[in-house]
Amino acid sequence: MSMIITVFGLVSIVSAALQMLDYISTGKPLMIIGFLVTGTAIILFFLYLIFNERKKKRKLEKR
C-alpha cells in the first residue's frame, strides 16, 4: 500500500515541477516574479528553521 502512495507522490512532484516550468516558459513577467518570490520565501523559511534548531542545540549543550 505504501508503495502505491509513494508512486503517486513522486508522479505528483514531477507533474508540479513540469507545470512550473511550463508557467515560467510562457515568459510572462508576473509568472517569473511569482516563482522567484515563492522560491525565495521557501528558502528563507527553511534557513530560519535550520538556524533556530542550531540555536536550540547550543542552548542545550551549555546546560
Set out the fold topology:
Layout: H1 2-25, H2 29-62
Walkthrough of the structure:
The protein is mainly α. Helices cover 92% and strands 0% of the residues. It contains two helices and no strands. The protein has helices spanning 2-25, 29-62. The protein is flat. 0% of the residues are buried.
List keywords for this structure.
flat, 2 helices, 63 residues, mainly alpha, 0% strand
Q: Helix- and strand-based class? A: mainly alpha
Distance between the termini: 45 Å
Question: Uncertain runs with pLDDT below 50, 5 residues or more?
Answer: none
**Share in β-strands:** under 5%
Compute the number of helices: 2
What is the average per-residue confidence, as pLDDT, rounded to a whole number?
A: 88
Helix-strand sequence: HH
Number of strands: 0
Largest sheet: none
The shape is: flat
Helix amount: over 70%
Radius of gyration using CA atoms only? 18 Å
